[in-house]
Amino acid sequence: VFCRYHLTQLRRAHETFEAKDAHIVAVGQGTPSDRDAFVSSHGPYPFPILCDPTRDAYRAYGLARGSLYNVAMHPNVIAKAAEAYLAGERQGRTIGDGMQLAGTFVISSEGIVLFAHAGKQSSDFPSNESVLAAI
Amino acid sequence: MADLQAPKPGDRAPAGVALDAAGDPVPFEQFWRDGPAVLVFLRHWG
User: Which residues of chain A does B21 touch, with a Cβ-Cβ cutoff of 8 Å?
Assistant: First the structure.
């Protein structure tokens, strides 16, 4: 449910990012058909949604698999899951490695990392405000 | 994967490639060529 919740928040703020000339791109696991099925059910999105079947890019960006505790049992996970459900998000069928953790990076036009957030729990993604502050 | 290290602010962005909707590989660099990019790795589809 956290991927849906994060994407919804990014979709709502998309124009604010664009006003800063910043372009959002999201990457998920699985195949293009997995991606298409997800976008059909939860999209559309005003930014590209790619997929990384081998997760080589996840590893290149240092994004690890979490423990069962950090994916499903940590208090932050339970609290944010409740928040997401109250906001109307619903868990779909998991496609990909459910232990994979997320990450958000802002990269300058010179290819330099301006902001880096590697998730520590499944629910851990940065607020749009913190990301926008780095741009 | 415990020894993975995420890039820090100030580091050069790692190279990366992902597939677009047509299944064609897209190098990440193209997304920040014309301005900053917000690169979001999702946990999984679900």
Answer: 32, 35-36, 49
